[in-house]
Amino acid sequence: MHNTGNQAAAGTPTATKAAVGSRVADHGLPTVSPLPLMELSIGFWSFKALATAQEVDLFGRLSGTGGRTVDELAGMLGVDQRPVELLVTACASIGLLERRDGRYVNSALADEFLVPGKAYDFGGWVQMLDRRLYPAWGRLTEAVRTN
Fold this sequence. Notes:
mainly alpha, Arc Repressor Mutant, subunit A, 2 domains, two-stranded antiparallel sheet, 10 helices, 2 strands, globular, protein dimerization activity, Methyltransferase, transferase, methyltransferase
């Protein structure tokens, strides 16, 4: 999660109060910040945004361009604008894309490691995690309960 400038710094009383809401008034401030727990809790959607972007070749489609608008990407992918807007917003929020003048471009991280064919392409790794390990980890509670 990236600080957009109008958010309190993680671990500060203001950030903690904002994160836990009105319950703070009833019990006082917690002794530790819940923000790391909150970040862990959204790990699933962060990974699925990465895996989906990789599967539809979002990073490859943006590589070497001056960026693309949501409308342009929707047209390239043959899908409606709204799902693309959600995907690029999610990818930007986790540091994989940057928005510049209404256009989305790969971040340095995505450009180095998520563009197909580049020397350090992680695409196969992401695909393997998504297809093989994520479904198995999704059954962890069942596995623990049944041995």
